[in-house]
Automatic annotation (TrEMBL):
Enzyme Commission number, as recorded: 4.1.1.36, 6.3.2.5
Keywords: Decarboxylase, Flavoprotein, FMN, Ligase, Lyase, Magnesium, Metal-binding, Multifunctional enzyme
Annotated cofactor note: Binds 1 FMN per subunit.
DNA/pantothenate metabolism flavoprotein C-terminal domain sequence ranges: 188-405
Gene3D superfamilies: CoaB-like, Flavin prenyltransferase-like
Residues covered by the Flavoprotein domain: 3-172
Protein's recorded name: Coenzyme A biosynthesis bifunctional protein CoaBC
Listed pathway(s): Cofactor biosynthesis; coenzyme A biosynthesis; CoA from (R)-pantothenate: step 2/5; Cofactor biosynthesis; coenzyme A biosynthesis; CoA from (R)-pantothenate: step 3/5
InterPro entries xrefs: CoaB-like_sf, CoaBC, DNA/pantothenate-metab_flavo_C, Flavin_trans-like, Flavoprotein
Catalytic activity, as annotated: N-[(R)-4-phosphopantothenoyl]-L-cysteine + H(+) = (R)-4'-phosphopantetheine + CO2; (R)-4'-phosphopantothenate + L-cysteine + CTP = N-[(R)-4-phosphopantothenoyl]-L-cysteine + CMP + diphosphate + H(+)
Protein species of origin: Nocardioides gansuensis
UniProt-annotated stretches for the region Phosphopantothenate--cysteine ligase: 193-409
Gene that this polypeptide is encoded by: coaBC
Lineage: Bacteria, Bacillati, Actinomycetota, Actinomycetes, Propionibacteriales
């Protein structure tokens, strides 16, 4: 059972932390809620106490004999601050300690996750940007806020990510950093990575399309894992209905051409691109403006196809950022020309990427499943990495481990 400190600072999104607390407690974690005085203006102490099963205080003077301002941070396995206001981020970055939460942050030697929530102008202010950069440089994971409705009639970037996704990211951090320091878990801090996910659609007419079975689960696991390791993440999502991972910028596309444009645009400033999406290899040479009708004589229409652009090949051979680590996926079944790994090795050489994740999808394995297994092949001659069957999050971290080793210092 992990000991989690849930810090809550004084923003309107404090009410959402109740849902986050419920998820932690119902999954068996021991949670201590440490709100600020301002947070208690939004959600009272009795609510936090009832949901956590523990007394709640914001002051260092309560239960002084137990030295809470030191003990809480020392004993924690993870600290999550949600919401984290601009004021709280500034205090944390400058080492101020004027209440129980900021004292806890100073004494914690475990991973710390901040989930900011504030108005767009406050998030974009250079003072906040500097504070976030400082916290990230120290190993803290500062999640990018979501875009959407803020207080009043305002909309923009600064919305607290959904509690369910903050919870999933927190579990990623806990699993990766168990028994280690915060610095260990944020090895992608300062890196910008791009992940593609899902399957593209190529339209035949206004209602029909050519597609594939990709669910997007592996790509989303990669995006979530990268965010948990401190990276700035852009996720190009092709026809996926999963909730947006916390702290991840999501760009939605439908066709392979749209995916190509979005990936190339995002890759212009990226340290790594992981092409986990399944782009359609072909598209119709023309798209009917009207629904294609059945013929009275029972004949079938002839559909002429042309090849789509090879996005992975283009990225690998014309890298927008020199030294960027490019990762591809190969879903293989094996055939008369070779085994799954032989076909994967040939694809690695043909595509020119740095790493290729080879999946055996015989019989429809992998698609839509929460689990995965793969072999990671490397162009630099390193030994293949065999990732045994397990959650797709485990494969995601194995991939980022290999990517991180290939970054130029």
């Amino acid at each position: 059972m992990s000991r989690v400190v849930l810090g809550v600072s004084g923003g309107i999104a404090a009410y959402k932390a109740c849902e986050l607390l419920r998820r932690f407690t119902e999954s068996g974690h021991d949670v201590t809620v440490v709100p600020t005085e301002a947070a208690l203006q939004f959600v009272g102490a009795p609510t936090w106490a009832a949901l956590s099963g523990k007394p709640v205080s914001s002051r260092v003077w309560d239960d002084v004999h137990e030295v809470p301002h030191v003990r809480i941070g020392q004993e924690a396995d993870l600290v999550v601050v949600a919401p984290a206001t601009a004021d709280l981020l500034a205090k944390a970055a400058h080492g101020l300690a004027d209440d129980l939460l900021t004292n806890t942050l100073l004494t914690a030697r475990c991973p710390v996750v901040f989930a900011p929530a504030m108005h767009t102008e406050m998030w974009e202010h250079e003072a906040t940007a500097a504070n976030v950069a400082t916290l990230r440089s120290r190993g803290a994971v500062v999640i990018e806020p979501a875009e959407g409705r803020l207080t009043g009639k305002d909309t923009g970037k600064g919305r607290l990510p959904e509690p369910a996704e903050i919870f999933e990211l927190a579990l990623e951090v806990l699993a990766r950093t168990a028994g280690t320091s915060a610095l260990t878990g944020a090895d992608l801090a300062g890196r910008h990575v791009v992940v593609s996910a899902g399957g593209t659609r190529e339209y035949l007419d206004p209602v029909r399309f050519l597609g594939n079975r990709s669910s997007g689960l592996q790509g989303y696991a990669l995006a979530r894992a990268a965010a948990a390791r401190g990276a700035e993440v852009t996720l190009v999502s092709a026809n996926v209905t999963l909730p947006d991972p916390a702290g991840v910028k999501v760009v939605r596309v439908e066709t392979t051409a749209q995916l190509r444009d979005a990936v190339l645009e995002a890759a212009a400033g990226a340290d790594s691109v992981v092409m986990a999406a399944a782009p359609a290899d072909f598209r119709p040479t023309s798209v009917s403006e009207a629904k294609i009708k059945k013929a009275d004589d029972g004949s079938s229409p002839t559909i002429e196809l042309e090849q789509n652009p090879d996005v992975l090949h283009e990225l690998a051979h014309h890298r927008p950022v020199p030294g960027a680590v490019i990762v591809g996926f190969a879903a293989e079944t094996g055939d008369a020309t070779g085994s799954v790994l032989e076909l994967g090795a040939a694809k690695l050489a043909r595509k020119g990427c740095d790493l290729l994740v080879v999946n055996d999808v015989s019989g429809g394995a992998v698609f839509g499943s929460p689990d995965n297994e793969a072999v990671i092949l490397a162009a630099d001659g390193a030994e293949p990495v065999v990732v045994p069957p397990g959650p797709k999050a485990a494969l995601a971290h194995a991939i980022w481990d290999q990517v991180a080793r290939r970054f130029v210092p």
